[in-house]
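BUG: 3D viewer hangs when loading the predicted structure for this chain

Environment: internal workstation, default settings.
Expected: structure renders.
Actual: progress bar stalls at 90%.

Input used:
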Amino acid sequence: MSRIALIGKNSVEFIRNLLNIWNSGNCAVLIDWRIPFDTAVKMMCEAKVTTCYVENNIYDEDTASGIELIVYERKFVHAELLPEGIYDGYKENYSGNEAVVIYSSGTTGNSKGIILSHYAINTNADAIIDYMNPEPTDVFAIIKSLSHSSTLVGELLVALKRHIPILVFSEHHLPSYIFKVCRQYLVTTMFLNPNLLAIYSRKVEFTKSKKANTLKYIYVSGSILTESVLNSAYKAFPDVAIYNVYGLTEAGPRVAAQTRVARSNNSVGRPISGVEVKVVNERGQKQDIGQVGSVFVKTHSCFSGYISDGQMGATQIGEWLDTGDCGYLNCNKELFIVGRNDTCILFQSHKIFPEEVETTLLELGAFTECLVSICGDDLTCFYSTDALGPIDETAMNQVLQHCKKLLPPYEIPNRFVFTTKLKRNNNGKLIRGEFGYE
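Structure tokens produced before the viewer hung:
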């Protein structure tokens, strides 16, 4: 078995090359095409890659430190329907052999190469099929990058296994174009991250179209879905079922998902088939209902390890995987994610999960997005707006009054700074720290 890299935008050719790598008994090392070439080379060297399939026009370099670059051409510029012949090229494989290496970056932006076996991704895809129950008449729209585990397993593999037609978008486009093409191809199911859902909800008058709307489901994953974004989406897509789901690449990736019977607000639903979840305190004891703690997962789809022994990420304690996330369970056994252990900040001797504060700040709609961080002696909120300028005093007072009703005093920022843009990584997650804003 060899590790063969694959770099390119979403396309039929990308998927065909992926299946060829698998059918040759090799492991596909998936690298996001937006990553700078020098960084991609370092990733490939770390994974001991000697051959790389790369889409033309992505990199200008002809050679890369002994790595053979095989250039392929993407024929369609914007979107295309996956041809019938591609489905014949997919062969189910439940072996323990390496299937993919996926580079996942979290809120800190540090990339880590995660190894997933064929058994892990196929059993996870089967569990996703179990709760999604896609019908032969469904059509999937794949918009997020195929180099990410959620798209690869939760969208592509599910569709290949159930022979669901796939409309493949090469990259992000204007929402009006996305929905125009989706209507043309009778798309029923769309997969977005919270950031894209927020953009589409604000900018697409989808329900006002005179043409028939075929969209039935939107699945959301990738980062915390705030109630404000979810409520905006409900208004924009009143006839569409919006399901929040949760996972991490190390878990194959899907862990939990909302369904018709487990869909409380912005929960991530219940654990999927073959997965157990527990929430524990600092001593490893299970938390009571509603109490926040560390989220642990036990799954058949657990990763095989990291490319480098020195890479840090999710850790295993016996059969359980420490996700690094904080959350709680409600009385309906639904999981709520409130933040990350590694983003927790200490302010005035209190532990603060910035994601919880940000969720509250966004609920009134005054901010488009925001990031809470400690700067000097201040708990600071960096925010952006649709108006591309700071909010006025009246609006700010409304935000503060809203916070006073829902947050303890030490969690309310004492400094607000307007910024034109908050930086996100390739997964759409906010980059925290001193380089997270402009």
